[in-house]
Structure formats: C-alpha cells, structure tokens
Amino acid sequence: MIFRQITRKNYFFSVRFFSSILKDRYGFVVPSIPIQQSRSSPNSPEVNGNKKRKKNKEPYRPPSSLDMTGKKIIHSNLPFDFRFSYTESNPNIKPIGLREPKYSPFGPGRVDRGWTGVCAPAVDPVLKSVEGDVSNDAEKKMEEWRRRRKMIIGELLTPAERAFLIEKCQKNRTKRQVNLGRDGLTHNMLNDIHNNWKHAEAVRIKCLGVPTVDMKNVCNQLEEKTGGLIIHRHGGQIILFRGRHYNPKKRPVIPLMLWKPHEPIYPRLIRTVIDGLTIEETKEMRRRGLTVPALTKLAKNGYHASLVPMVRDAFLTDELVRIDCKGLPTTDYKKIGVKLRELVPCILVTFQKEQIVVWRGKDYISNSHINSEEKSFSLVSKSDQSTEKRLTDISTHNSGCYIHDQSSDNDSIISDTEDLEMDPRIEEHVNTPQCSSEECP
C-alpha cells in the first residue's frame, strides 16, 4: 500500500518517509561496540596452530648410523637378482662406474642381500667367485622356481574360461590396472601384481612408452618374474593370469624398494669416430643424417612396437634413417636408440636436435630378415581369410588359447591370434613344431 501512494514527483521524500517507518517499526539501534564472535572459526590460524603443529624435520643421518637392532631381516626365496627395472636393464652389460655409494634401496639392514650398486644378487658374488658349487645351487633354485610355476598354473584354460577372464578384465568391467611406463617392469610392480591377484584371477597391464619397442622382452620378464601366464595381448594391453592353483597366502616374499637408485655410468653410446669410417666421413654422415626425411615421429608415452620392423624395411632402400623424437625426454630416446642397436641391428650415429639417426653399416645384408616387408605390412593391414583360417586352426590345436615361442626357455610367451597379427616376430614360430605333452606346463 505504501508503494502505491508514492509518485515520481515526491519520490525523494517518500524514500526518507519509508526508511523512518522501518526504523520505528523494528527499532534497530547500531551497537557502539562490534559484536565479538562467540565461536572462533575452525579455519582460524589460532585453532589450527593448537590442533596441529608442524613437526621439525629430523636432520639427515647416513644409513650406516641408523640403529637396526631388534628389527627382523627380510628373507626372500625368489631365485633371481633384484633390480630396479627388469626390462630396461641388461645384466650382460657391465657399468664403468657408480653415481652414488652402494646404499641399498631396500633400506639399511632390511634385506639379507647385499647391494652391488646395480642389483641385489640372489647369490653372494664373493661366495660365487670362491665356491664353484654356488652357481649350481642357483641353477637348481631357478629350475625349482619354474617347476613350481608349472604346478601353480595347472591345466591349460579352455576357450570359454579364457574368454570369460578376458571379458572380466576389460575397461568396462573393472578399473583395476597396472601401468607399465618408461621405467618398464620395476621391482615394486611385482608386489602390485600379486596384490591384484588377491581379488581377481587375472590382472590387466597397460604398457606405454620406451618398453613397448621390445614387447617380447616385456612378456618374457612378466612371466618369469611373476610366475603368471599371459593369456591375451592386444597392442600394449596384456592380461596376466595367476594360475589355477594360486594361493594368495603362499605368495612369495617381495621386499619393497624405498627409493629409486641412481643409474650407474655406462660407456658412451655415440663414439667420436664410427668404426670403419674416418673423422671427415663421420662428420659428413652426421650432417647428412639430420637432413634426410624422418621415418616417423614418436609420441610421448606412445606404443612403439612397429618401430623395429619399420627401420628394417627402411634399410632395404636407405642407408641412413632418422627418427623424430621432439618432445620426448632425453633418457627416453637414448634408451630407444639402444634397443634399436640391439634389435635391428644398426649403428648409432647421433642424438643431436632430439633426433635418432642410425646407420645400417657397410656389411649390411638385405636378406638377413626374411619377409620383413610382409611382417611390417601386417601391422597396418588386415590379414586375409587364409591367414585367419591358419591361425584359427593353430589356436584350436593348442586348446584354443596358447602358442609357445621356442626362443625363450621352457616357459614361453603365450599369445592369441591377435598377438600374431600385432607382433610380426611371433609369426616366425607359427610353422614350427609344438612342444610335446611332457614339456608343456
């Protein structure tokens, strides 16, 4: 009613009149002293300071000064040497130096194995050099480990069981996954895989980055170090089966590494003068290698399984091959260069300007890798009907699920028909005779 009586002409006076009515009606009086908060806010610094006070950081003490009395030493029956990475380290290549003292990454006095700066050997190297029987004992332990692995895996899975486990491990069914990145299969990852096997019979492993250049080595190390069995592989996705008779309560003891050890010092990858060339020829080859068209561009955390056959096919027509690695860390493309040197094989020319330049060498034989063009072509094209029929017959002959690779030890990589299409190196063993019933697990 008050608003209806107000006109535009006396708008200013009506506002004053309206405010006076509100003041008289409610009788609001402004306090002279500000109202004090009865409760202090929980986010105030006084309350937070009383509840939680920042503890002073303890000064650094070397591991040798720590008191380990009364703590149990962890003993593991695993027959292999403990390394930070099993796929990205080669025990056959010896380092020329160390970047830090020989502090064990397992902690001082926590494990009954000494640390050599590179690994924690299962057999003491001092005893191994003095007593000759120690090496025989190590081989017996490894054979016992493989025999137990066959017993735990049990009978081969039927096609229905295998399809059920594969479907159960897909992304739309479970979020459980173990990521395998640039460090490859690390020691602590073994513990993660066994933790996943507590709740499921199979675990999904996603492989990306540098280790995917040699997926065969990744599969070999996964089966050998975990004791499981690969029942499916599509690209960088691996499904690892724990075995029919796996008991989580009897899992092996795996001590955890508390920090990542520094990598030792290895010989230089790039030599000043390439073998068989003069200084001028080496400089000219490096200059020319940076100007040739790039074979491919590698993506960060990508899947590089087709890189080796691509380089082999490029060597059929070109002497130098350049791979663009812009955006990748320096350690990543240097590791890729080492893998190419061993798998292709080839000679490393330079890593300048984030490029990998490799040379096939003077004594390169084009027929050294049979059907390399067909293998690399199978990575990007679909197989014809005859190939699919042949692969189906082979998979049916092996209970529909396994094909054994004779290049590894008695326990081999196991792949399905999709694996044969994705990895051309497995096709070499398709027509080879299968293992007998006594040799198969």
CATH top level label of the largest domain: Alpha Beta
Number of helices: 14
User: What integer is the average pLDDT?
Assistant: 77
Q: From the 3D structure, determine the CATH topology of the largest domain.
A: Translation Initiation Factor IF3
- Rg, please? 33 Å
Biggest sheet record: 4 strands, mixed
Number of strands: 8
The gross shape turns out to be: extended
Biggest sheet strand line-up: 1-2-4-3
Low-confidence stretches: 370-441
Overview of the molecule:
By secondary structure, this protein is α/β, with parallel strands linked by helices. The protein has two domains: 69-267 and 387-441, YhbY-like (Translation Initiation Factor IF3), CATH 3.30.110.60; 279-368, Translation Initiation Factor IF3, CATH 3.30.110.60. 33% of the residues lie in helices and 9% in strands. It is built from 14 helices and eight strands. The strands form two sheets. Strands 1-2-4-3 form a four-stranded mixed β-sheet, with helices on both faces. The longest helix has 21 residues, at 133-153. Residues 370-441 have low confidence and may be disordered.
Give the helix/strand layout:
Layout: H1 2-5, H2 11-26, H3 45-51, H4 125-130, H5 133-153, H6 159-168, E1 178-180, H7 187-197, E2 202-207, H8 215-226, E3 229-234, E4 237-241, H9 279-289, E5 294-297, H10 307-314, E6 320-324, H11 330-343, E7 347-350, E8 355-359, H12 372-378, H13 385-397, H14 417-422
Parallel strand pairs: 1-2, 5-6
Antiparallel strand pairs: 2-4, 3-4, 6-8, 7-8
Helix pairs in contact: 10-12
Keywords: mRNA processing, mRNA splicing, Repeat, Ribonucleoprotein, RNA-binding, Transit peptide
GO molecular function, one term: RNA binding
Domain CRM: 155-253, 275-371
